[in-house]
Amino acid sequence: MTGAGVAGAAVQVVAVAAGSPLLVGWMRQVRARLEGRIGSGVLQPYRDLRKLARKQSIVPEGTTVVFATAPAFIAATMLVVAAIVPTVTVASPMDGVGDLFVVVGLLLIATVALILAALDTGTPFGGMGASRETTIAALVEPAILVAVFALSIRANSSNLAAIVTATAHRPGDVLTPAGALAFAALVVVVAAETGRLPIDNPATHLELTMVHEAMVLEYSGPRLALVEWGASMRLAVLVGLLANLYLPIGVAGAHAGAAGLVVGVGAIAAKTALLAGALAAGEVFVAKVRLFRVPELLAGSFLLGLLAVTAAYFLAPRGA
Amino acid sequence: MSAHTYATLVDLAAGTLLLSAVLVVWRRDLQATARLLAVQGAALGAIPILSGVRRGDVQLVVVGVAVVTLRAVVFPKLIAVRLRGELAHEREGAPLVNTTASLLVTATLVIVAYALSRPLVRLDASSAARAAPVGYALVLIGVFLLVTRRKALSQVVAFLVLDNGIDAVAFLATLGVPVVVELGASLDVLLAVVILGVLTGRMHAKFGGTDLDELRELRE
To answer: N or C: which terminus of chain B carries fewer CB neighbours within 10 A?
Structure first.
């Protein structure tokens, strides 16, 4: 636990907390421009959050403490994940618990909190959104574990910071078939975890096509602001992690100074913006798949991850 | 070329073979699978070309060029010729095994292939031999596709995946196949594909569809 590590973790949390609405705004703006619209600007999510924070919170009759506290759970787990995941620094003091399984588990806590809150409302749309989200979450877990496991074989550790450091030392490792297959699997996983196309359309207003939005239909005011902020933090963390797993340039080490941290923040901001822009541009060209075909897509992602694992074990040049 | 470059390129070719086989299982559109066959043929032909360049063996390079011409150009062309007109947008409509289950079975088959070929890989520690399980995986995936696909042209594609797998094992696990042997085997497969293509055309003309499960009993 070094001073640079603690400072880096704090910078990570602040950057993700403050910058994730900007990432959402950037993705929406890229999509809008590609679709021929002017778009509402990259700062629109901030305006939305500010507006929601000032509105009255309406709680549906018959809901319990689950509904009331779920937004806090979501935001809190996302902040913890932001401290663990190696975005700005690889020497976060949570390194001892910064395992892949812990991160996936924390993301799942947020998902389950929202699912339970949606069930708590007792509305049919809440139940529908909750059951859809459960299906997707159950199928995405093995896919994400297998895909990151493929990358962890080379680093001999499932600690995310260790994987990023190993890739930083040997950048050519991710250009193997295992790396490419794992990347394809991880792109599908990120789309599924963050509720973006082709699994879920974040801009839909038709309730029968909603997954994430159906779960938050009954939220209003500050609680809705917390849920939206949590969702944008999830997007920022996952896209940042994907960018750093494959392109760990500029990540601050255990003994980086203030300049190193600034470089780390700039590097992750640039990489995340690039990857998020590419994902948003890709979204313009795909349609949402039918719910009954989402297991097919996630099984394909799982298979790609499994092929990446076999490729990493068997096709790896030993010691080359 | 250096050993490291050779190993990387052979790994890339083997990875492309496996990925294209997985995509043939995933995609149900026949035109897409015919295009994937072309990619697979190109990756397969790259392996003897790489071995030939590394060892300075001209015969291997000739074999590689012949394989690429046949499996990446001729076979997909023969299938695409059949997919014109009414059959242009053929898809596997109601598969015997749905796509999710097929993908999971493919995962199992890949693992089985790796387990099966452990003794073979142990014989030779070179990078090409370590990729030999990919050939076995292709063979098993081809057999699985042959069993579970209904349309005649899908079964032709599956048969070609199976044959690509056999060739992949031959190129990866051995020091090379003589030109005569390769041309003989390929001519066999070429004749089979031509005949199957003609048969598919006649089937479609006579029965209005190429779903082989419909051909269960003799008719007048």
So the answer is: C
